[in-house]
Amino acid sequence: MLEENGISCNADHILLTPGGKNAIYLAVNAILNPDEEVIVLDPSWVSYEPIIQAAGGRCVKVKLDYQTQYRITKEKLEEAYSERTRLLIINYPNNPTGCILHEDEADILEAFLLEHPEVYLLSDEVYETLVYDGNKSVSMAARARVSERVITVNGFSKSAAMTGWRMGYMVSNEEVFKTAYKLYTHSLSCMSGFLQKGAVHAFACKRETEEMRRIYEQRRNMFIGILNGTKGVHCNLPEGAFYAWVYFDVKGMDSFAMCDYLMENAGVVGMPGSAYGEESVCCMRFSFAAATEDLERAAKNIKAAIEKLG
Ligand SMILES: Cc1ncc(COP(=O)(O)O)c(C=O)c1O
């Protein structure tokens, strides 16, 4: 971790889990007491809120804006904060927006944690290796002044395309680790040895994972290039992950209606922005983790279907 993202950690505080999702589940349950609050930045991945609710907590959404490329602001965080706030969950590279965490936003998060010493931060970095254009997403646990209160979650589903293997991990301070480990021992016991060996091998496959990242970058450029050449459609180039977060300027249609329309008229399935908490504009999420030819056909079909609307 130190070599790749500057996180200095104790190997005894790394917990191997069946996917990053389970790591998030364990960490949230280890930290949260009933009725405490967790701040989540919207648009957000669909599982955070149910996990928080299952732990007896309350999810407080901070709505970031499409118009400002979903950048974090101090004001928005402070507005969401209350005396019951115990945890803040962030996810960079982000599903669904493709945004990465920039240094100036990491400064804001660091200042927020220093201001509120009872708050933990969970950083979901499962798309960490999928970043484009030579950029890097900041890992908050690399910030020494707050690293004790940062739980980092990662896994092999995205970086090594090992989704079905269900291999993930979390790293935290000793206190969180010990509680999460108790939950783990009495529910999961351990991860199978052969899965662990497979995951260790994935660390050695740097050349292959870099090749995969490069191909995603090419697909991203092609898919978004075609969509951005369509009147009424706009998509910022995602900085990371493998999702195109596409804005449709079409009157009278919300993201659900647009999903139905494109499924019927373009034969393309995407996710409605409202599923991620984006209600103010009509956005859809498309995955570009598919074959290049299929993606090209999908983008051309979307273009034709939108042009048909006039
Ligand atoms: C943001 C985010 N976090 C976590 C996960 C869970 O991944 P895993 O397969 O490692 O459980 C996903 C999967 O889609 C995701 O998009």
Care to describe what's here?
The chain folds into 2 domains: 2-203, Type I PLP-dependent aspartate aminotransferase-like (Major domain) (Aspartate Aminotransferase, domain 2, 3-Layer(aba) Sandwich), CATH 3.40.640.10; 207-309, Aspartate Aminotransferase, domain 1, CATH 3.90.1150. Helices cover 38% and strands 17% of the residues. It is built from 10 helices and 11 strands. The chain has helices spanning 2-5, 20-31, 48-54, 74-80, 103-115, 174-185, 193-203, 206-228, 255-266, 292-309; strands at 14-17, 37-42, 58-63, 85-91, 120-124, 150-155, 168-171, 233-234, 243-248, 271-272, 283-287. A 7-stranded mixed β-sheet has the order 1-7-6-5-4-2-3, with helices on both faces. The chain has a 4-stranded antiparallel β-sheet with strand order 8-9-11-10. The radius of gyration is 20 Å and the shape is globular. It starts with a helix and ends with a helix. The structure holds pyridoxal-5'-phosphate. Residues 19-21, 45, 91, 95, 124, 126, 155, 157, 163, 168 line the site of pyridoxal-5'-phosphate (PLP). The site of pyridoxal-5'-phosphate has 12 residues, from α2.
